[in-house]
Amino acid sequence: MDSALIKAIGLKALLVGVGALLLFWTFNAIKLVISARGINPLVKKFFDQIAAGRIDGAYRLTTKAYKSHVNRQEFIKFLGSLQLNRYRNLKSGRPRIEDNQIMLTLSLKSEDKKNEMPLDFTFIKINENWQIDRIAKANT
User: Fold this and answer.
1) What is the pLDDT of residues 26-79, one digit of tens each?
2) Exposure class string for 50-77: b at 16+ Cβ within 10 A, else e
3) What is the pTM of this model?
């Protein structure tokens, strides 16, 4: 076989492979965006509730499973330990899908951007509405 023909076949195979990989990543990116629709408004509502002093409102945005592991007093204590009043900005990381859950690391940043606190959130869709299933300080 001619070496030019072998190179042409190899190049075509490489292009087909790259095209398939690109299609795979595009499909997964679109799936993630569609799946995660509604999470940003939930996050905004969660932090708005806390900022307005409506801790019970923020607590109601969590799942029954979360509430079975973290009672209201523990939730208040956890929020107090975060010292949220020190942070003014929120930066969202890249969401990850696992089964029917979406995990997302949100980084709270101080106004001067010198301090940062990452929080891991897990969201689950219940009856067409997203709810918070887990909140924890991220391991950094």
Assistant:
1) 545 444 444 556 788 899 999 999 989 999 999 999 999 999 999 999 999 999
2) beeeeeeebbebbbeebeeebeeeebee
3) 0.71
